[in-house]
Structure formats: structure tokens, C-alpha cells
Amino acid sequence: MGSHGTEKTVTGWAARDPSGILSPYSYTLRKTGPEDVVIKVLFCGICHTDLHQTKNDLGMSKYPMVPGHEVVGEVVEVGAEVSKFEVADTVGAGVIIGCCRECAPCKADTEQYCNRKIWTYNDVYTDGKPTQGGFASAMVVDQKFLVKIPPGLAPEKAAPLLCAGLTAYSPMKHFGLMDAGLRAGVLGLGGVGHVGVKLAKAMGHHVTVISSSDKKRAEAVDHLGADAYLVSSDEPGMAAAADTLDYIIDTVPVSHPLEPYLSLLKLNGKLILLGVINQPLQFLTPMVMLGRKSITGSFIGSMQETQEMLEFCEAKGVTSMIEVVKMDYANEAFERLERNDVRYRFVIDVAGSNLDP
Ligand SMILES: NC(=O)C1=CN([C@@H]2O[C@H](COP(=O)(O)OP(=O)(O)OC[C@H]3O[C@@H](n4cnc5c(N)ncnc54)[C@H](OP(=O)(O)O)[C@@H]3O)[C@@H](O)[C@H]2O)C=CC1
Ligand SMILES: O=C/C=C/c1ccc(O)c(O)c1
Ligand SMILES: [Zn+2]
Ligand SMILES: [Zn+2]
């Protein structure tokens, strides 16, 4: 991290166009404001959203784009009015790094639903500078958008909790799905899904994984603790499980029919959509009417929920299952993520990588 006056020059790995291929990119961080914290990035997870964004799946990508929103770092500098953190703390940043602080969602501590939220990358900060993510040596983050990593969590395994963990935890909390004894479904056993299984088990739920293949059955049951495993194309198996689940977290990142999964829900069951899909999904209304079922969605979680979820994970021994790689493996990791070849999250050892090869 070099210095020019008070603007620090850093190296990140950026996508330059919708090929999504990452390469070293040098840029300056904004000056450290009174409420800002400068972090040295230690680890950063690779979320499927990073793939959607670098490849412009949503049609809103701006380049150069330094992705990464599952960031664990070490505090190296604090602004004059920072009260929550001090130098050497281990902290986490997630999907958003700003909000308006005035609207109803902000006042209710649900700032993730603020219409003026600022995304960690692929956005513009209040000073007009593009925001850049955690595939970089350092970041400047307002203290409101950082959490403390509890000492009982290994930093590299905590990184995926900052998006994947939160995304599974927040709807469980919001929709009153934390009581022991509930019957949960997790559709899509990837980054979000595998932490979803672990969180639901820690809450005392009976967990059924619903996967597109049989490949992850043994791991799901033996390593993640799932109670049952269904392959979505197994019609007799799916029919036998009809009307058994209280809720399903649906993490599939591509278009898929909803009816097979609505059938699995009990009366009043909830299908919670989490995947970012840029095409319409279809279902017939009787599939929700006959059973008073809900199709809903959820977007990450609040900063308050992030801290609470990390403490829940520490207390219950929940961590992510990861493959740690160096930055020079990032392009291969993205390709493997795209072909569903990761168990279950890549985490980049940013501080241990040579970012300027
Ligand atoms: N709502 C929110 O706030 C958030 C949304 N997301 C979104 O959730 C989705 C899942 O993210 P994440 O868990 O990181 O993704 P992963 O790629 O890690 O997992 C997705 C899983 O979905 C299943 N799947 C089914 N069909 C496909 C396909 N064609 N390609 C890839 N996977 C497939 C696979 O599970 P299996 O092998 O079991 O079938 C796969 O492991 C993404 O769309 C992401 O953008 C992510 C974080 C926050
Ligand atoms: O991975 C976290 C971000 C999820 C996300 C959800 C919805 C949406 O429109 C996005 O652009 C990102
Ligand atoms: Zn994410
Ligand atoms: Zn707001």
C-alpha cells in the first residue's frame, strides 16, 4: 500500500469487461474520513454474485471492477471519530458499505433495504469515486459497515459468513424460523446453501438438501449433518417428500421451475428465493393457494444481524467449508464456481498473495 499525500494507492484484481477475467489493477482509496476505518484485507470469499457481476449477468456492470464482498481484514488506521474499532482488530465487511440513514428501512436497522444503499463494489461512493471490493490489498470502510470477527472464528472461515452466512440467517430470523423442530429444505448446495444447512442444524431443524445431482449426497449427510437428501429429478423421491417442509431456502442461481419445490412445503410453508435470476420464474396459482404457501425473497441481512449471526456461529461452532487459494488462482476459481466444482466456497488468501506478479 503506497501513499500519495493522504490517498493510498492499492493493487486489486479487476475484471475489465464481461469476459470476467481478472488481472492486477492499481487505484487509489478515498481519504480516511472521521468515521472511516482502513483495513488490510486478509481473506475474501468468492460468492456466485461476484460471477454474476464480473460477467455482467444483470446488465449493470461497470469496469474496471474489483469484486469481493466477503472480506475479513485487519484494522490498520482509524478516523478521528471511530469508536467501534481500534488498530489490530479483526473485522469483516460485506455486500454494502453505505446507506442514506434517513429512510424507513435505515431507521429500522434494515439498511440492506435502503434504496440509496452503496454496494461494496460496482457502485459510486458519496465522493464520486467508484467503489472497489475485497480482491485488493486494502479498503476504506465506514465503521457502520464493519463488524467484529469473534475470536472463536478462524478469519478465513469467517469470510463466507459475511454474505453466504448472513443471507441464510436473516430470513430464518425475520420469518420466525429459528425454533427447534422445524423441517427445513435447502435447495442448491453451494456457498449459501451449505452454510444454510449448518445454521438450520444449529437451530435444531430437520434438514433436507435438495440438489441437482447425487454427487454431494455423502458430504451433505456426513460432513454437513443433513438429515435427508433429495435429487430434484428423482420424481418418486420428490413425491414421497410432498407436504413435509416448513420452509425452503432456494439458492439456485439460474432459472428453474418452482412447482416441484412448492409441492414439498406443508400448509403455510415458505419458499424463500435467494438466487439472483434475471429471467421470470413460473408457477400456477393453485400451487400456493391450496396450502396457503408463500413465495418470498430476502436480501443479505442488516449489520446488526451480521454481528448477531457471527456470534451465533461462534457459540454453536458453525463455520464454512472452504478451499483457500491465492489470488493468481482467482480466474480458475471463478471457472470452477461456474461449473459447480467447489466444496463449498473459495476463499482468497489476499494477504498471502503476490498481487503484482
Ligand atoms: N439474496 C441475497 O442476498 C444473496 C443472493 N446470492 C445469490 O444466490 C445464488 C447462490 O449463490 P452461491 O451460493 O454463492 O452460489 P453457488 O454457485 O456456490 O451455489 C449455487 C448452487 O445452486 C445449484 N445449482 C443448480 N443449478 C445450477 C447451475 N446451473 N449453475 C450453478 N449452480 C447451480 C448448485 O447446487 P447443487 O449442486 O446442490 O444443485 C450450486 O452449488 C446466486 O445467484 C447469488 O448471486 C448470494 C448471496 C446473497
Ligand atoms: O451476494 C450478494 C448480493 C446479492 C444480490 C442480490 C440481488 C441483486 O439484485 C444483486 O445485484 C445482488
Ligand atoms: Zn454474496
Ligand atoms: Zn436509507
Automatic annotation (TrEMBL):
SUPFAM superfamilies in UniProt: GroES-like, NAD(P)-binding Rossmann-fold domains
Catalytic activity: (E)-cinnamyl alcohol + NADP(+) = (E)-cinnamaldehyde + NADPH + H(+); (E)-sinapyl alcohol + NADP(+) = (E)-sinapaldehyde + NADPH + H(+); (E)-coniferol + NADP(+) = (E)-coniferaldehyde + NADPH + H(+); (E)-4-coumaroyl alcohol + NADP(+) = (E)-4-coumaraldehyde + NADPH + H(+)
Oligomeric and partner information: Homodimer.
A Pfam cross-reference name: ADH_N
GO molecular function: cinnamyl-alcohol dehydrogenase activity; zinc ion binding
One BP annotation, GO: lignin biosynthetic process
Entry similarity comment: Belongs to the zinc-containing alcohol dehydrogenase family.
Pathway(s) annotated for this protein in UniProt: Aromatic compound metabolism; phenylpropanoid biosynthesis
Top-level enzyme category: oxidoreductase
Protein name: cinnamyl-alcohol dehydrogenase
